[in-house]
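Homework help board

Subject: predicted structure for assignment chain

Our instructor gave us this sequence and asked us to write out the predicted structure in C-alpha coordinate form, then describe one feature. I got the C-alpha coordinates but I'm not sure how to describe them. Can anyone check?
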Amino acid sequence: ATDADWRRPDPEDLVYLELPGGRVVMELATPFAPAHAANIRTLVRSGYFDGLAVLRAQENYVVQWGDPSADDADKARPLGEAAAGLAPEFDRSAADLPFHALPDGDVYAPQVGFSHGFAAARDPANDRAWLAHCPGSLGVARGNTADSGSGAGLYVVIGHGPRHLDRNITLVGRVLKGMELLSVMPRGTGALGFYQDAGLRTPILSMSVAADVPPAQRSELQVFRTDTEAFAQLVASRRHRFEPWFLDPVGRVELCNVAVPVREAPPATP
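My C-alpha coordinate output:
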Protein backbone atom coordinates (compact mmCIF):
# COMPACT_ATOMS: atom_id res chain seq x y z
CA ALA A 1 0.00 0.00 0.00
CA THR A 2 1.03 3.58 -0.65
CA ASP A 3 -0.07 6.83 0.98
CA ALA A 4 -2.66 7.19 -1.80
CA ASP A 5 -4.41 4.06 -0.48
CA TRP A 6 -5.34 5.87 2.74
CA ARG A 7 -7.86 8.64 3.39
CA ARG A 8 -8.33 11.18 6.17
CA PRO A 9 -11.94 11.33 7.37
CA ASP A 10 -13.65 14.70 7.32
CA PRO A 11 -13.42 16.22 10.85
CA GLU A 12 -17.15 17.04 10.57
CA ASP A 13 -17.78 13.29 10.38
CA LEU A 14 -15.61 12.38 13.37
CA VAL A 15 -17.07 12.26 16.88
CA TYR A 16 -15.02 11.78 20.04
CA LEU A 17 -16.49 9.94 23.03
CA GLU A 18 -14.36 10.76 26.07
CA LEU A 19 -14.45 8.08 28.78
CA PRO A 20 -12.43 7.79 31.99
CA GLY A 21 -10.25 5.22 30.23
CA GLY A 22 -9.61 7.27 27.12
CA ARG A 23 -11.09 8.39 23.80
CA VAL A 24 -13.31 6.49 21.39
CA VAL A 25 -13.17 7.86 17.83
CA MET A 26 -16.21 7.27 15.61
CA GLU A 27 -16.81 8.16 11.97
CA LEU A 28 -20.34 9.13 10.97
CA ALA A 29 -21.66 7.56 7.77
CA THR A 30 -23.30 10.72 6.48
CA PRO A 31 -24.03 9.34 2.97
CA PHE A 32 -26.21 6.63 4.52
CA ALA A 33 -27.90 8.50 7.40
CA PRO A 34 -27.59 12.25 6.78
CA ALA A 35 -30.48 13.32 9.03
CA HIS A 36 -29.32 11.21 11.98
CA ALA A 37 -25.70 12.30 11.53
CA ALA A 38 -26.79 15.94 11.56
CA ASN A 39 -28.95 15.42 14.66
CA ILE A 40 -26.08 13.71 16.47
CA ARG A 41 -23.81 16.65 15.66
CA THR A 42 -26.45 19.00 17.08
CA LEU A 43 -26.71 16.94 20.27
CA VAL A 44 -22.95 16.67 20.66
CA ARG A 45 -22.35 20.38 20.05
CA SER A 46 -25.00 21.30 22.62
CA GLY A 47 -23.23 19.23 25.29
CA TYR A 48 -26.18 16.86 25.54
CA PHE A 49 -24.07 13.76 26.22
CA ASP A 50 -21.64 15.36 28.66
CA GLY A 51 -22.11 13.80 32.08
CA LEU A 52 -24.47 11.05 30.89
CA ALA A 53 -23.44 7.39 31.06
CA VAL A 54 -23.05 3.99 29.47
CA LEU A 55 -26.35 2.30 30.34
CA ARG A 56 -25.96 -1.17 28.90
CA ALA A 57 -23.30 -3.73 28.10
CA GLN A 58 -24.69 -6.99 26.76
CA GLU A 59 -22.32 -9.90 26.28
CA ASN A 60 -21.46 -10.62 22.63
CA TYR A 61 -23.86 -7.89 21.50
CA VAL A 62 -23.73 -4.13 22.19
CA VAL A 63 -22.70 -1.31 24.50
CA GLN A 64 -25.25 1.52 24.68
CA TRP A 65 -25.14 5.01 26.17
CA GLY A 66 -27.48 7.94 26.72
CA ASP A 67 -29.70 9.53 29.36
CA PRO A 68 -30.65 7.19 32.24
CA SER A 69 -33.83 9.25 32.69
CA ALA A 70 -34.79 9.45 29.03
CA ASP A 71 -38.13 7.72 29.63
CA ASP A 72 -39.13 10.07 32.47
CA ALA A 73 -40.52 13.30 31.03
CA ASP A 74 -39.93 15.14 34.32
CA LYS A 75 -36.27 14.14 34.59
CA ALA A 76 -35.10 13.65 31.00
CA ARG A 77 -32.36 15.96 29.78
CA PRO A 78 -33.75 18.44 27.21
CA LEU A 79 -32.73 17.83 23.61
CA GLY A 80 -32.45 21.51 22.81
CA GLU A 81 -32.58 22.17 19.09
CA ALA A 82 -32.20 18.47 18.21
CA ALA A 83 -35.18 16.49 16.92
CA ALA A 84 -36.77 14.04 19.36
CA GLY A 85 -37.53 11.57 16.57
CA LEU A 86 -36.53 11.16 12.95
CA ALA A 87 -37.80 9.26 9.95
CA PRO A 88 -35.84 6.01 9.77
CA GLU A 89 -32.77 5.82 7.56
CA PHE A 90 -32.62 2.04 7.48
CA ASP A 91 -31.61 2.03 3.82
CA ARG A 92 -31.23 4.33 0.84
CA SER A 93 -31.21 4.30 -2.94
CA ALA A 94 -28.38 2.26 -4.40
CA ALA A 95 -28.29 4.41 -7.54
CA ASP A 96 -25.01 6.27 -8.01
CA LEU A 97 -23.70 4.84 -4.73
CA PRO A 98 -20.11 3.59 -5.00
CA PHE A 99 -20.10 -0.07 -4.06
CA HIS A 100 -17.29 -2.62 -4.14
CA ALA A 101 -18.84 -6.05 -3.79
CA LEU A 102 -17.25 -9.07 -2.18
CA PRO A 103 -17.13 -12.16 -4.42
CA ASP A 104 -18.77 -14.55 -1.94
CA GLY A 105 -22.44 -14.86 -1.10
CA ASP A 106 -24.35 -13.57 1.91
CA VAL A 107 -27.33 -14.81 3.92
CA TYR A 108 -28.89 -11.40 4.56
CA ALA A 109 -28.54 -9.59 1.25
CA PRO A 110 -28.12 -10.22 -2.48
CA GLN A 111 -24.73 -8.49 -2.33
CA VAL A 112 -22.37 -7.25 0.37
CA GLY A 113 -19.23 -5.17 0.17
CA PHE A 114 -18.02 -1.70 1.00
CA SER A 115 -19.28 1.79 0.24
CA HIS A 116 -17.61 5.03 1.34
CA GLY A 117 -15.38 2.85 3.54
CA PHE A 118 -18.24 1.20 5.46
CA ALA A 119 -19.41 -2.41 5.42
CA ALA A 120 -22.64 -2.37 3.44
CA ALA A 121 -25.21 -4.49 1.65
CA ARG A 122 -27.14 -3.97 -1.57
CA ASP A 123 -30.23 -5.17 -3.40
CA PRO A 124 -29.71 -3.97 -6.99
CA ALA A 125 -33.05 -5.33 -8.19
CA ASN A 126 -34.91 -3.06 -5.77
CA ASP A 127 -32.43 -0.16 -5.82
CA ARG A 128 -31.68 -0.33 -2.09
CA ALA A 129 -28.45 -0.23 -0.10
CA TRP A 130 -27.79 -0.18 3.64
CA LEU A 131 -25.06 -0.41 6.25
CA ALA A 132 -24.38 -3.78 7.85
CA HIS A 133 -24.09 -4.61 11.53
CA CYS A 134 -20.47 -5.65 11.99
CA PRO A 135 -18.29 -5.34 15.10
CA GLY A 136 -17.69 -1.66 15.76
CA SER A 137 -20.83 -0.46 13.97
CA LEU A 138 -22.46 2.62 15.51
CA GLY A 139 -26.25 2.60 15.69
CA VAL A 140 -29.15 4.75 16.86
CA ALA A 141 -31.25 3.23 19.64
CA ARG A 142 -35.03 3.34 19.10
CA GLY A 143 -38.29 2.12 20.58
CA ASN A 144 -40.91 0.01 18.85
CA THR A 145 -41.77 2.59 16.19
CA ALA A 146 -39.47 3.21 13.25
CA ASP A 147 -39.33 6.97 13.85
CA SER A 148 -38.53 6.83 17.57
CA GLY A 149 -34.75 7.11 17.20
CA SER A 150 -32.98 10.47 17.28
CA GLY A 151 -29.35 9.76 18.16
CA ALA A 152 -29.84 10.68 21.82
CA GLY A 153 -29.26 7.00 22.54
CA LEU A 154 -26.37 5.33 20.72
CA TYR A 155 -24.90 1.83 20.67
CA VAL A 156 -21.81 0.08 19.34
CA VAL A 157 -21.64 -3.58 18.37
CA ILE A 158 -19.05 -5.32 20.56
CA GLY A 159 -19.83 -8.92 19.64
CA HIS A 160 -20.34 -11.05 16.57
CA GLY A 161 -22.09 -9.07 13.85
CA PRO A 162 -25.86 -9.14 14.58
CA ARG A 163 -26.85 -8.90 10.94
CA HIS A 164 -30.50 -9.64 11.76
CA LEU A 165 -30.67 -6.01 12.88
CA ASP A 166 -29.86 -4.75 9.37
CA ARG A 167 -32.65 -2.56 7.96
CA ASN A 168 -34.46 -2.63 11.31
CA ILE A 169 -32.52 0.19 12.92
CA THR A 170 -30.50 3.14 11.67
CA LEU A 171 -26.78 2.58 11.51
CA VAL A 172 -24.91 5.86 11.47
CA GLY A 173 -21.20 5.01 11.47
CA ARG A 174 -18.47 2.93 13.04
CA VAL A 175 -15.69 3.06 15.61
CA LEU A 176 -12.26 3.83 14.20
CA LYS A 177 -10.33 3.70 17.46
CA GLY A 178 -11.06 2.79 21.06
CA MET A 179 -13.02 -0.47 20.75
CA GLU A 180 -10.94 -1.87 23.60
CA LEU A 181 -12.52 0.73 25.90
CA LEU A 182 -16.04 -0.40 25.03
CA SER A 183 -15.52 -4.15 24.86
CA VAL A 184 -14.28 -4.35 28.47
CA MET A 185 -17.28 -2.61 30.02
CA PRO A 186 -18.73 -4.60 32.96
CA ARG A 187 -21.66 -6.65 31.69
CA GLY A 188 -25.07 -5.58 32.90
CA THR A 189 -27.16 -8.13 34.77
CA GLY A 190 -30.56 -6.69 33.85
CA ALA A 191 -32.63 -7.51 30.79
CA LEU A 192 -30.67 -6.93 27.57
CA GLY A 193 -27.58 -6.11 29.61
CA PHE A 194 -28.89 -2.90 31.20
CA TYR A 195 -27.29 -2.02 34.52
CA GLN A 196 -29.51 -2.67 37.52
CA ASP A 197 -26.86 -1.06 39.72
CA ALA A 198 -26.31 2.55 38.62
CA GLY A 199 -22.87 2.38 40.22
CA LEU A 200 -21.68 0.14 37.39
CA ARG A 201 -22.40 2.74 34.74
CA THR A 202 -19.36 4.28 33.10
CA PRO A 203 -19.67 8.07 33.02
CA ILE A 204 -19.33 10.01 29.80
CA LEU A 205 -16.89 12.85 30.36
CA SER A 206 -17.81 14.56 27.11
CA MET A 207 -18.52 14.13 23.42
CA SER A 208 -17.26 16.43 20.70
CA VAL A 209 -17.11 16.82 16.93
CA ALA A 210 -13.48 16.69 15.79
CA ALA A 211 -13.92 19.84 13.69
CA ASP A 212 -14.56 21.76 16.94
CA VAL A 213 -11.45 20.43 18.68
CA PRO A 214 -8.15 22.32 18.34
CA PRO A 215 -5.94 20.53 15.78
CA ALA A 216 -3.29 19.74 18.38
CA GLN A 217 -5.89 17.84 20.44
CA ARG A 218 -7.39 15.80 17.62
CA SER A 219 -6.81 12.11 16.96
CA GLU A 220 -5.17 12.17 13.55
CA LEU A 221 -6.21 8.94 11.88
CA GLN A 222 -6.21 7.54 8.38
CA VAL A 223 -8.58 4.88 7.08
CA PHE A 224 -7.72 2.39 4.35
CA ARG A 225 -9.65 3.18 1.19
CA THR A 226 -11.98 0.44 0.01
CA ASP A 227 -12.00 1.46 -3.66
CA THR A 228 -8.41 0.56 -4.53
CA GLU A 229 -6.44 -2.37 -5.87
CA ALA A 230 -4.62 -2.51 -2.53
CA PHE A 231 -7.91 -3.14 -0.75
CA ALA A 232 -8.84 -5.79 -3.32
CA GLN A 233 -5.56 -7.52 -2.45
CA LEU A 234 -6.42 -7.27 1.24
CA VAL A 235 -9.78 -8.95 0.58
CA ALA A 236 -8.02 -11.70 -1.40
CA SER A 237 -5.67 -12.28 1.54
CA ARG A 238 -8.66 -12.68 3.87
CA ARG A 239 -10.33 -15.14 1.48
CA HIS A 240 -7.30 -17.30 0.74
CA ARG A 241 -5.38 -18.03 3.93
CA PHE A 242 -1.97 -19.27 2.89
CA GLU A 243 -0.26 -18.64 6.22
CA PRO A 244 1.50 -21.81 7.46
CA TRP A 245 -0.98 -22.28 10.33
CA PHE A 246 -3.97 -22.81 8.02
CA LEU A 247 -4.48 -26.41 6.94
CA ASP A 248 -7.51 -25.39 4.88
CA PRO A 249 -7.01 -22.13 2.94
CA VAL A 250 -10.78 -21.41 3.23
CA GLY A 251 -11.21 -19.66 -0.14
CA ARG A 252 -14.08 -17.38 0.91
CA VAL A 253 -14.89 -14.66 3.41
CA GLU A 254 -17.96 -13.05 4.93
CA LEU A 255 -18.45 -9.32 5.19
CA CYS A 256 -17.74 -8.78 8.88
CA ASN A 257 -14.46 -10.71 8.65
CA VAL A 258 -12.92 -8.05 6.42
CA ALA A 259 -11.80 -5.34 8.82
CA VAL A 260 -10.94 -2.00 7.22
CA PRO A 261 -7.54 -0.95 8.62
CA VAL A 262 -7.09 2.31 10.53
CA ARG A 263 -3.74 3.86 11.39
CA GLU A 264 -2.28 6.90 13.06
CA ALA A 265 -1.61 9.50 10.39
CA PRO A 266 2.12 9.72 9.65
CA PRO A 267 3.78 13.06 10.37
CA ALA A 268 3.79 15.53 7.51
CA THR A 269 6.96 15.53 5.39
CA PRO A 270 8.85 18.80 5.84
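Reply (TA_rk): Your C-alpha coordinates look well-formed. For the description, you could write something like this. The first strand starts at residue 6 and ends at 7. That's the kind of observation they're looking for.
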